[in-house]
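Handoff note, outgoing to incoming analyst
You'll be picking up this chain. Sequence as last confirmed:
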Amino acid sequence: MLPRRCLFGLALLAPVAASARIFAERGVALRGTDVVAYFTEHRAMRGRDEFSTEWGGARWLFASGEHRARFLADPAAHAPAYGGFCAWAVSQGYTARTDPAAWRIVERRLYLNYDQAIKRRWERDIPGHIASADANWPRLRLAGSTNGAPA
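Most recent structure output, in case you need it:
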């Protein structure tokens, strides 16, 4: 029987169809969540097909034309850290999918996490996890590690 910690790790191994830089499923970034809404509405909002754009090798959806225009004016200011992969996982040296409801903005940067439990773990040491993730991300991004396994 596998230890509980190993079982959790296996949950993160679920396949993710993504570019090496952006968390996307079937080519749609962040499960179709409007990234601008985190900053303007302070909540996760579903984007709509008619307000979409291509950026960074993925299709991004927005709740309104205004949100799409804001994104296009400065994509880097709105795109999530680590391409939208789980901030805690990246701090640990691998990538994992994210839940659009498990988010936080820190110093005007959007961070997403695998789920609410992992978000709480990440929040125990936000500066430390960000420092570790910032150090790990260039290697993970270039390696294209997108399946949750250590790179």
